[in-house]
Amino acid sequence: MLELAILGLLQESPMHGYELRKELAAKLGAIRAAISYGSLYPTLRRLQAAGWITEAAEAPATAEEVPALTSRRGRVVYKITAEGKERFAQLIGQAGPETYDDTGFGVHFAFFARTDQATRLRILEGRRRKIEERREGLRDVLGRAAERLDAYTLELQRHGLDACEREVRWLEELIANERSGRAPTIPRAGMVGGRRDNDSPPPPGESRKERP
């Protein structure tokens, strides 16, 4: 998954390791992108050895990117090669069990704009099955063992069940959009779930009392 994410980001522009780490966090979220330099740089070296990325000119390091008491060396900038673009296309076209898990799905979904519709549908439908199975497992636990769980464990199970039910609804909406050829709706400022948030300030020219 890290290989896929790096190759996808380098298709946007050449980057050095610090930029890649920041972009991974921005694109995938802090939890999925909790990537240390210990895992990032070995992957970069492996991709370079495979001929999928190459080094560009070095860029000068800024003060914020250099830890205290260390030398300010130039940063190696990486760019994707033609072979790397082919490798990315191969990876992004995969739709197996690994793409339905939390991390695999998150990385693939981040690059859905570059994925063909048929593959997007297979991944979304596989993810929905995965979450439905997780939901049924939680329902089974709550149905059979709720009386044996303490209040906090029970609340945690309910929280997990709620999260599964929300994700299934979200996936069903995405699947319906894909089948009809529509892209996901991007909420405007002041919109929540495609509806206006009545607690947010009204847009210019509209008073709060005029809002539905």
TrEMBL record:
Positions of region (Disordered):
181-212
Please, which domain of life does this record's source organism belong to? Bacteria
Q: Signal sequence: where?
A: none
Q: Where is the Transcription regulator PadR N-terminal domain positioned along the sequence? A: 6-89
> What protein does this entry describe?
PadR family transcriptional regulator
Q: Per the UniProt entry, what species is this protein from, by scientific name? A: Micromonospora rubida
Lineage here is: Bacteria, Bacillati, Actinomycetota, Actinomycetes, Micromonosporales
